[in-house]
Amino acid sequence: MMKWKVCGMRDLNNIEAVAACEPDFMGFIWAPKSPRYVGPDFVIPTLSANTKAVGVFVNETTANILALSKKAGFQVVQLHGEEGQDVIDELQAAGLLVIKAISVATEDDMKGLNLNPDYYLFDTKKGSQVGGTGEQFDWSILQAYTLDIPYFLAGGLVTDSIAEAKKLPGIFALDFNSKLESSPGLKDLTKVKDIMQNI
């Protein structure tokens, strides 16, 4: 069954409302350059047992990630920078699940995927942006995906994307963010419920 994630959460009331829809994953961004940055002191409120909290980072030190995982309360880490296998190994050894994001524009971006995270995440490459573009890349690139590592698909996803995305080889989950928002970090509950019903 297709899993789904709502990323870029920040507002406590909004988190509670979205959590009631029980997405499989909920993402919280600890990247200071992001408009959805939660800040160093943010603590994730208690979520349903069916929803895993994900901490999202860009080139952060493993020491900081591990400290935040204990303090803020997440079990899954999403890496959006140039992190290598050594970082993945260290986080996995500490008991965390690791999602490694890859920005995709052309088939070349899919070559040489030689890391071993728990999951990949494929997002749209746009200039120096490492996600949150609200734009979809050419999914036909994923038809050649042959690795055993399941992946999340991100990049401008909406309800109408679901049926097509489910046909992709190796896909594990859909990652929704900016297209659900009324403003950065604030999700429109009507759109979230629509996803829940269609997933």
Provide tags for this entry.
single chain; 199 residues; alpha/beta; TIM Barrel; 8-stranded parallel beta barrel; two-stranded antiparallel sheet; 5 helices; 10 strands
Molecular structure report:
This protein has 199 residues and is an alpha/beta fold. It has a single domain (3-198), classed as TIM Barrel, CATH 3.20.20. The chain is 22% helix and 24% strand. An eight-stranded parallel beta barrel has the order 1-2-3-4-5-6-7-8. The chain has a two-stranded antiparallel ribbon with strand order 9-10. Helix 3 links the parallel strand 4 (76-79) and strand 5 (97-104). The longest helix is centred in the middle third of the chain and has 12 residues, at 62-73. The mean pLDDT is 94.
The gist of it:
This protein is an alpha/beta fold and 199 residues long. It is 22% helix and 24% strand. The model has no long low-confidence stretch (mean pLDDT 94).
